[in-house]
Amino acid sequence: MHLPYLIVVVIYTTLQFVKVKADGTKPSQGDIEQLFDFEKIQSPNLSSPVSPTHPTNRSRCKTYPEDPEWPSPQQWKDFDTLLGGNVLIKTVPEASPCYTNDTATPSSPICQSLTSNWGRSDLRIEDPTSIRSVLFQGMTCMPPAYSPAFFNATTANKTTLGCDVGGFPEYTVNVSNVAQIQESVRFARKWNIRLVVKNTGHDFGGKSTGRGALSVWTHYLKDRKVVGEFVEGGEGGYVGTVVKLAAGVQVYEAYALAKEYVITLVGGEGKTVGHIGGYIQGGGHSPLTSIYGMAADHILSINLVTANSTFLAANATHNTDLFWAIRGGGGSTYGIVTSMLLKAYPRIPVTTMRYNMTTSRTFPRAKFWQAMKAYIDRFEEYADLGHYSYFRIRHVNGEIFHDMASWVAPNTSATDFRASIAPLLRIWHDIGVPFDPIITEYDNFSDAWEEGFPQEAWTWNMRQASRFFPREHFTNDTKRLQSFEAVKEVFEEGANLILFNMRNPPGSEALDNAVNPAWRKVLLFAIMFVTWAPGDGREFVERLSRNLTEVWNLRWRALTPGGGTYMSESDYIEPDWQQSFFGDKYPRLYKLKQEYDPEGVFYAQNAVGSEDWGLSEVLLGHLPSQNSRLCRK
């Protein structure tokens, strides 16, 4: 029997700034790593020996609401009481106001509001279970205007408009302290219930959802503090400013903090993404990657709750194997992170460029691709200047629409930036590119990011795949042309494209963490995606989905043998995902998974160790459905 612990219901948003101590000495590692208030609220040591063997045949599958082993309503009520009361949330799908007795009521004011705002991540992340990748949840409760026509009437699929929980978690714990996380892990382990972790739900691969699951929702853990003049212990330790962020801090909040304290943080481009969730744990590319590397490279210490409910710190001197694994090995795998200590850098000037262009009678497709080839031919030059560009090429009304979301040049004045791109612009002028760029110089990265990366919509009707094209493909004329043609071909065959030009800085390949080694060689990160309309039939959508994986993705993979891609923005059924996402680091990551979580308390699609498990149903004939039973193979 576990005794209730002290519960503090307040959601902490503490901001602290620690400089040199009163006696003139610099703060020590211990000073820096003092726990946030919410981390001080802990349960007694809940750790228990984990089973050295696989579960029995009876418990080979996770327990589900239809199983006799499922906790009774009273046991769920007792669990909520243990957590402090009114913490456990029974899932009601976000779009449920659009249905009355399973009949669509799209004209209701609340449903109309949901429909018009369905793509707004800033609103939808406030729901306990909403996610971006609803396809893999089963799309069992969508606003009627978006409810797909192609699902058939099985547990995982639907034809009639209606609303049920489907592949969403059954319950969510809105955590406000470490004790609640510890008890949630313990409860899931005790009852053999699937456990998922949700921060904001941005993940492209359905990692933060699952039928019958208990979800740990970290979104409201918002504490953060900045520490100046930090000296890390040990030879070669980091010296400089550090920032400590709690699990729920989002990118826009982290960058606002950086601006306030005149520093620079390495983070994502998406405004509402969680800064230290799956983003950074999966590696995390950034508009600053070309000069500073991956976001995971800047982690100094991690606080987390492991699969046996132990709360611990992992850093360069304690629990070093976990410290290595979590920096790039993926989220929802080794534990639930509560906070991280991160390197910060001085404020830097940044210049950005934005533009768009559309093909037309006077600017035909041939000229567009001629212009793109001239740009891609210079990828090595621009990346080595420290630049990062994020651009899209899409099909719009029968024409090609290309927009440069933001070309970011850190530590660069507008004058120097213009000089660096002048040769390209002369070529574009000669081609006749309709080009009216907006070039802006900023005295800090946060403002450059704020204006250059507007909030993007959550697209529900899409599937994507991706690949890294390494530097060697841009130093060799033949491979560079092959890479260009590979990107062009999938577009002309129907795909849309999201492309990034960046590098990892020299020396980053020597860093000892779990970041995919293929990241260290990249110059082009290419994403292709397909979309469909709500009324499109199953055969059409399945053909799109299969073609993405079985034709286009295989074509890019064949051109880059032994390469990889970014786990967080990849094909949901990426072939040989262990190699693609982790390279030669996978064997060590898998060994650590068996050591720290042999029971499989933490599971996520394509996460380390997930090959030991399988989902019982598929969507569109080939996509594992999160709206099905999870069983050990």
TrEMBL record:
The keyword Flavoprotein applies. This is FAD-binding domain-containing protein. Keywords: FAD, Flavoprotein, Oxidoreductase, Signal. Residues 165-347 form the FAD-binding PCMH-type domain. Belongs to the oxygen-dependent FAD-linked oxidoreductase family. Residues 43-70 are annotated as: Disordered. It comes from Byssothecium circinans. The keyword tRNA processing does not apply. It holds the Pfam family FAD_binding_4. Residues 1-22 form the signal peptide. Residues 43-58 have a biased composition (Polar residues). One of its GO terms (molecular function) is FAD binding.
